[in-house]
């Protein structure tokens, strides 16, 4: 739809105060390679972000997904090299925030430092945060039951904070090399 629109700088999708027919799905590669896109708000009407929807939006710095987004597709935000901060599924929202983060959804986001995963995320796909070299910490809530292979591949400076204790995590499904050998703090209760 808007793929390769290099003059596009700001996008608001699915705003709760818009009176028209709301956008509920952002399609596959809809905004891919919009290299000057700096500002993105995905509002509360959007339920699904498609495969490679924003891949290659290298100027994008901050991302907050609306409270009703339930699915982030594979490679949705991969190669967003300017992305520094991501909030996935509001931790204090009582609705149905993101439950699935697709394969390589945020891979190759080299400047990504801060990552908050909300309390309803159940599944994190293979390589979801691979090659995010600046990522220093990730907090994984108790709601996560499945972590894919190589979730943090080539992330050599990250500490993983698990809300579950090591005993509680026995029922989880962990993919091969899920933590890339990085330290895990089990039973984390901090902010």
Ordered list of secondary-structure elements with their pairings:
Layout (H helix, E strand, L loop, with lengths): L9 E4 L11 E2 L12 E4 L5 E2 L12 E4 L5 E2 L12 E4 L11 E2 L12 E4 L5 E2 L12 E4 L5 E2 L11 E4 L10 E2 L9 E2 L6
Parallel strand pairs: 1-3, 2-4, 3-5, 4-6, 5-7, 6-8, 7-9, 8-10, 10-12, 11-13, 12-14, 13-15
Walk me through the structure.
The protein is an all-beta fold and 191 residues long. It has strands at 10-13, 25-26, 39-42, 48-49, 62-65, 71-72, 85-88, 100-101, 114-117, 123-124, 137-140, 146-147, 159-162, 173-174, 184-185. Helix content is 0%, strand content 23%. The mean pLDDT is 88.
Mean pLDDT score? 88
Number of helices: 0
Q: Which ranges are low-confidence, i.e. pLDDT below 50, for 5 or more consecutive residues?
A: none
Strand neighbour order, sheet with most strands? 2-4-6-8-10-12-14
The secondary structure category is mainly beta
- Strand coverage percent: 15-25%
Estimated helix fraction:
under 10%
Count the strands?
Answer: 15
Distance between the termini: 39 Å
Rg measurement, Å: 16 Å
Q: What characterizes the major β-sheet?
A: 7 strands, parallel
Shape: globular
- In sequence order, what are the helices and strands, one letter per element? EEEEEEEEEEEEEEE
Task: Describe the structure in brief.
The chain has no helices and 15 strands.
Defining traits:
single chain; 191 residues; mainly beta; seven-stranded parallel beta sheet; five-stranded parallel beta sheet; 15 strands; globular
